[in-house]
Each structure stands twice: as C-alpha cells, then as structure tokens.
Amino acid sequence: MRIFFAAVMACLGFSNVADAQQAYPTRPVTIVVPFGVGSSVDIVSRALAQHFRTELGQPVVVFNRPGAGGNIGATSVAHAQADGYTLLMATTGPAANNKFMYKEMAFDPDKDFEPVALLGTAPIIIATRADAPFKTLKEMVEYAKANPDKLNAGYPGNGSLGHITGELIKARQGLKFGTIQYKGSSEIVVDLIGGQIDLAMDSIAPYVAQVKEGKLRALALGSRKRFEGLPDVPTTAEAGYPALEASVFYTLLVPRGTPADIVSRLNKTTNDYLKTETAIKVLGSNGIQASQSTPAEAKKYITDEAAKWEPIIKGANIKF
Known about the structure:
By secondary structure, the chain is α/β, with parallel strands linked by helices. It is built from 13 helices and ten strands.
C-alpha cells in the first residue's frame, strides 16, 4: 500500500526538495551581462557559464545587454520570471550604487533581486606617474594638502567606482584636486604615462603590466589583502588609510521569489567553480580576487557596500 501511495503521489507531481533540485534545470539558462562583450564581467560570466553547462547539464547562454551603467540589463532580469532560468551577473553599480545616482530606475536592487553568491572583488588601484613627487599614499596625501588643486586625477567614467573612490579620498582626507572623466581605462593609462594627469583611481587590471614595467607607480590598492599580481603594493589599510578600502564586487543575482532550492543549487555550483584552477586563473587575469559565500553572506556584503558608498555619492552630488 505504501509503495502504491508513493507512486500515486509521484504521478500527481508531489516531490521533495531533492527531487526538485534534480529536476532543475530542464531547459537553457540565461546569464544576463549588463555590460559589453569583452568586459571583465563578460569574461567572468562566460567562464562561469561553461562550468554551469557541465554541472547543470543544460545549455547556458550569456546575453549582453549594456547601457545606463548596467541598469538596462539589470531591469530585464528584475522583471523576468523567478524560476532560475534568468540570472544577472552584476557589479557594484547595478547591485548597490546606481540607486543613489540615477533619478529614474525601473528596478529596486534591494526588492527585486536575491543574491546567489559573491564571486570576487577587484580592488581599486591608486596609481600615479613614475616621476611623481611622491612615492607612497601618505606622501601623496601630504603633497595634495600642501598643494591644493595642483594635482589632476583621471577616472573611468562619471559614477564609476574609480570616480567615487576619488571622492572618498577627497572627503576623508580633506583634499582638493582636479578630476578628468575618461571613456575607459586605456585612455587614462596613456595620459598617466604621458604625464597629462597625475593620478588614477580605477580597477586594477589595466595597470598591472605598466606597474611591473616601471611605467607607472602604484601607491596602494583598495583591497583587504594584497593582490598576487602586485605583491609589493600595499593595501590602503597597510598604507595607513583603512577607511579608503574600495573594490568592485562581482555577484550573481536572481529575481526575488526564485525557489530556495534553486538558489541553493546555483550557490553550490558557483562556489564549486570558484575552487577550480580555471576560475582562479580567469578571475586573477582580470584583477579579481576570488571569494566564496552563502546567499546570506553575499546579501550582507552588498548591503554593507551600499551603506558605505551612499553618503560619498550623495555628498559629491553624483547624479544622472
């Protein structure tokens, strides 16, 4: 009788969580990247998608929907079905900071998403030209205080974390220096090497080779630990400025309401990937320090980052 009853229940579609986890996914999964092809977010997403294909047993498509600082792609996922088939690979902007800068957004990152996992963080580098009159972060701060408005800093776009980090340094240290917004990191590197600007606050990856070759000088990194690619460069905390910690984070999100068992499976699959040599290589080559987390830990990290950056963004009046 018990065997007969179990068979009937199975036929009627009743199953336990383990069965549900095994059933998912039954069709292709899409990872939406809210930035362009070739960006670090895109590269990380495609590597993760390959792992997902193997582990989940279904095609995983990476779909780029760039624009509005990541808001266009994020909006499409926020309004998607909460069934685990549409994921968002987000960074600090769409996951936390954009809500403080954009007057109009068609989604609320706090209400419309659930974190799956934190994949890693890419420290902001504070770099200067090789012949700058200062060699450490402390010396730069002292020089800037003694010579207000004499230095110029380049940022990779208005509202980027590099820009916001520059505002953080100004606010916390009481500094005044000029700011120049660029369309991308490559232009900043060229002008910094050429001496057209004095400082850069930007994601680390485009600067590693130039620092190693002595063409640029790295004053500090905004990470909690040193970056393996530049082991001699101190963190901001080691340089005496713990309040200047700043890193772009990479997180996998799903629409709110996605079943907990699906979130759990995606979290485990992501964390398993982050342990692989492939993940360490891909992330490291893009200046990203890999991390692993539970969904709850990822949520707390995002919440803490938003709370940290909100007063800096509002104080600098960064708006779109």
